[in-house]
Amino acid sequence: MYLNYFGLHTTPFSIAPDPQFLYMSERHQEALAHLTYGLQGSGGFILLTGEVGTGKTTVSRALLEQLSEATRTAFILNPMLNEHELLATLCDEFGIRYAKRSVTDKKLTDKLSAFLLEAHANGEQCVVLIDEAQHLQPQVLEQLRLLTNLETNQEKLLRVILIGQPELQDLLRRRELRQLAQRITARYHLLPLQLEDTERYINYRLQVGGATRGLFDSKAISTVHRLSEGIPRRLNLLCDRALLAAYNEQAPVVAVRHVKEAASELDGPPQQANDSNGWGREIILALLIVIVLLGTYVWRNQMAVPAAESTSVEQTSAPVGEAALLRAWQLPQPPSGTALCDWITEYQLGCLRGQMRFDQLLQINYPMLLELDTGEYQFIGSTSAQPASNWTGRYVMFWQLPPGYFAEDESLYERWLVKTLQSFQVDPSLPIADQFRTIQVEAGIPVSGELDGATLAWLTAHRQTTGPRLQQRQVED
Q1: What share of residues in the chain are helix, strand, coil (percent, to 5)?
Q2: Residue 410's pLDDT is what?
Q3: Which of 324, 326, 317 is nearest to 298 (CA)?
Q4: Structural domains in the chain?
Q5: Are residues 208 and 11 in contact, defined by beta-carbon separation less than 8 angstroms?
Q6: What is the DSSP pairing of strand 391-400 with strand 368-372?
Q7: Entry's SMART domains (predicted)?
Q8: Which three-class secondary structure string do you get for 177-226?
Q9: What pLDDT was estimated at residue 437?
Q10: Which of 320-334, 378-392, 412-426 has the highest mean pLDDT?
């Protein structure tokens, strides 16, 4: 309805996976790089997870477009299979013929093994891509692991890419699947878009759709990002409805009111209490006051615990500062009883903690927590912030792990490190300790001559593009 009005030749925010609207944000490019590294390694499994609508399919399509013609691929879009159906589906996808009436699991396995050996002899790579892999049964995953046992001295003959929602990570932590989890050589958790990416995403799709000018004002884009929480699929729905709302009003551009109207149509109007007698609002207000006072009392008592007995950053009853750090990385609350610094590795993040000068922490350029002598934590999210006077000098910081950091095969990580050092133009003829000292001096971080945690965190912050950074100090005119 609004195409002619806005000068568009096609709907720009359809949720259909149209290749011409493929937009790779910085986080999607980072995910693609991890998957590409994984296919170049010698391991058998690659893992991509993310919430619903974050663009996992977008990344997988981009990956497949990059594969050479010597790659044989099998797609499993319906993971609700048993072991026999898995083997049969793989044979069907690879074009392997078999007698369906008398076939057994052994015959299917033998045919797959012969096919993989022949493909390797012909210089071909075989890749299996499984979408919605969180629905796979443990027995099916174990069958996949057994198939990847076929290998040469250098590499696996079958690579498996598992794509799924965060529940897939919980599935792979099961004890009976520990052997499979150890064979994952590359993993990436796709987080929602950041505000800058949301703006570029909207404008890119509008341009492909035929727009010759911006159709969303800046405040509308910020509102879309907030209401969509950076989820591309929901972002598409909101933008499509907002364009329709602006068209119905004959407005030249989409404003905040149009985005809110779109959100109301998608989510329905907010529930309202029946307060025709005037008592409804007063009761609700009184309840809210009680809740706020109770919450303040509980919070103060939690913060008043002496330092020796206070909750650490690894406990689930997280202080306010820790919650802010999780929000900065757009992470959910960790499961009960889970150590935070262990849990975040599932999201391709590392945990850096210790003592360091504040100016050196700012150089690393990741949001952080500063431990105070009261046992509380101060969240630092911008370069203009200053540490509290009772800061102990200790800190906690999350940082983006490089590709293959925890993989059994370290070749991915080693290649990343070599390219990273080259990108900073460090003299390769120097001893490795001197190369690290050169970087540390120029970076303004502690000089150790070793690839310690602070140095690696600084390298990822300045080499990679994803993850939150400290907001820069704004200079007033």
Answers
A1: 50, 15, 40
A2: 66
A3: 317
A4: 1-9+194-267 (1.10.8.60), 26-190 (3.40.50.300), 333-463 (no CATH)
A5: no
A6: antiparallel
A7: AAA (SM00382)
A8: HHHHHCCEEEEEEECCCCHHHHHHHHHHHHHHCCCCCCCECHHHHHHHHH
A9: 84
A10: 378-392
Phi, psi of 50 (to 5 degrees): 175, 160
- What is d(CA 9, CA 30) in angstroms, rounded to the nearest whole number? 32
Which residue type does 425 have? Q
CB 96 within 8 A of CB 115: yes
* Mean of pLDDT values over 246-263: 93
In this structure, the strands spanning 45-50 and 391-400 are unpaired
Question: What is the side-by-side strand order in the sheet with 349-355?
Answer: 349-355, 391-400, 368-372, 377-380
What separation, in Å, do the N-terminal and C-terminal C-alpha atoms of the chain show?
A: 45
Tokens found for residue 286: 């009184």
Q: What are 339-347's contacts with CB under 8 Å, separation 24+?
A: 339/314, 340/313, 340/314, 340/315, 341/313, 341/314, 341/396, 342/314, 344/398, 345/401, 345/406, 346/169, 346/189, 347/189, 347/191
pLDDT above 70 covers what percent of the chain? 85
SS3 annotation, 74-131: EEECCCCCCHHHHHHHHHHHHCCCCCCCCCCHHHHHHHHHHHHHHHHHCCCEEEEEEC
Cβ pair 135, 22 in contact under 8 A: no
Enclosing H/E stretch for 378: strand 377-380
410: its two tokens: 């370290």
> What one-letter code names the amino acid at 129?
L
Nearest to 238 by CA among 196, 192, 272, 198: 198
The predicted pLDDT at position 301 comes to 37
pLDDT averaged over every residue in the chain: 81
Phi-psi group of 307: left, alpha or beta (phi > 0 → left; psi -120 to 50 → alpha; rest → beta): alpha
pLDDT tier for residue 354 given thresholds of 50, 70 and 90: confident
* Cβ-proximal residues to 406 (8 Å cutoff; 6+ apart), any chain: 187, 345
Place of tokens 């922490």: 361
Write the pLDDT tens digit of every residue in 424-447: 777 777 788 888 888 888 888 988
The residue behind tokens 């802010």 is 324
Question: Assign residue 123 a region: left if phi > 0, alpha if psi is -120 to 50, beta otherwise?
Answer: left
CB atoms within 10 A of CB 260: 16
Q: Of 145, 158, 164, 176, which is closest to residue 80 (Cα–Cα)? A: 164
Q: Which two tokens stand for residue 276?
A: 């025709």
Residues in a beta bridge with 71: 125
Please give the angle made by the CA atoms of 27, 30 and 31, to the nearest 5 degrees: 90
CB 163 within 8 A of CB 56: yes
